[in-house]
Inverse folding.
């Protein structure tokens, strides 16, 4: 996204983007999850949240889509999102298997693997985990090493869009 924004602005890397020149990036976070809305952290890229600005929560968004003939629109979600149920995990199971022993090109280039990787916080392959069981804590990617069974991963997938934690009512948090 950063690369595309720079190119659209006419300042591809490594050219410096001048002060006052920026792109707006609209992110579809609904009002009931406003706590996920964050700044981009970049001077040339500003995040805007039109659903929050309009006060639309998830239910209102679904109503809006349904009224316009898009009732069957699927929810966008990351492959490794911890909010999947068992039916939503086939692609994540394959990804989980693929990362188990690291990235082959990296290890071939002499970057050693320091453990085994799992998507699920239990450090069990996804095809062996009951994904509908309530989680004790939410984690996304865990590195299992001999000296540490738990790595300190942030409770989010991306700085702008992956769901993290329980939904918060805008009126309760204010």
């Amino acid at each position: 996204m950063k690369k595309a924004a720079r190119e659209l602005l006419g300042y591809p890397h490594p050219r410096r983007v001048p002060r006052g020149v920026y792109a707006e990036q609209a992110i579809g976070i609904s009002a009931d999850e406003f706590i996920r809305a964050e700044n981009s952290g970049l001077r040339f890229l500003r995040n805007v949240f039109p659903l929050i600005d309009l006060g639309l929560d998830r239910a209102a968004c679904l109503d809006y889509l349904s009224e316009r003939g898009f009732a069957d629109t699927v929810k966008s979600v990351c492959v490794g999102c911890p909010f999947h149920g068992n039916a939503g995990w086939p692609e994540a199971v394959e990804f989980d298997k693929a990362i188990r022993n690291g990235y082959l090109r990296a290890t071939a280039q002499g970057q050693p693997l320091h453990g085994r990787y799992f998507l699920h916080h239990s450090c069990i392959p996804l095809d062996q985990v009951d994904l509908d069981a309530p989680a004790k804590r939410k984690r996304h990617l865990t590195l299992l090493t001999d000296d540490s069974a738990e790595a300190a991963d942030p409770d989010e997938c991306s700085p702008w869009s992956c769901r993290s934690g329980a939904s918060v009512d805008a009126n309760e948090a204010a």
Confidence is low (pLDDT under 50) at residues 142-160, 163-174.
